[in-house]
Amino acid sequence: MADEEEDATVSDHLFQPALSFTPSGTVAEFEEENEEIGGGAEGGQGKRKRLFSKELRCMMYGFGDDQNPYTESVDILEDLVIEFITEMTHKAMSIGRQGRVQVEDIVFLIRKDPRKFARVKDLLTMNEELKRARKAFDEANYGS
Question: What is the pTM of this model?
C-alpha cells in the first residue's frame, strides 16, 4: 500500500522538471533540495522523493526482474540514475555555452560510447520525424 502512495506521488511530479538547464542555477537548487530532504546516494533512504521509481520498476520487470522488485533495488538504481544525470548535466554545462545544456553537448559527451551514441541518434531522428508528421497533420487539418 505504501508503494501505491509512493507511485501516485512520483507520477504527480514526473512532469515537473527536477533539473533545469538554464543559467539560473536550478541544478544546484536540486542538489540542495536533496540534501535538505536527506537524499543523495549516501544516506537518508526513503526520505527523499523518488522521481523515477514507477518507471524503473517497469524497466526492471521488462529486463527480467520480478514484477514487484525489492524497494531497496529500485532505490539503488534510482540513485545511480540521478547520479548519472547530474554528472552528465554538470559536464554538459561546462562545455559549449557556459551554464546551458544543448543537445549537441550531450551528443559530444557520449560520442565515444557507440551504444549510447546510436540510441541518441535514433531518438533524435525519431523526434524529427514526429515533428514533421505533426506539422503535416496540422497543415492538412487546418489548411495553413
Answer: 0.60
Q: How confident is the model at residue 144 (pLDDT cuts 50, 70, 90)?
A: low
What secondary structure letter does DSSP report for 51?
Answer: S
d(Cα 64, Cα 41) in Å, to the nearest integer?
25
* Cell output for 63: 529486463
* 119 vs 127: CA distance, rounded Å: 12
> Residue 76 and residue 45: Cα distance in Å, rounded?
9
The residue among 44, 21, 46, 109 whose CA lies nearest residue 30 is 21
- pLDDT tens for each residue of 24-80: 343 443 444 444 334 444 444 446 788 999 999 999 999 999 999 999 999 999 999
Identify residue 84 by its one-letter amino acid code. F
Encoded amino acid at 75, one letter: D
Burial of 48 (0-12, 13-18, 19+ CB in 10 A): buried
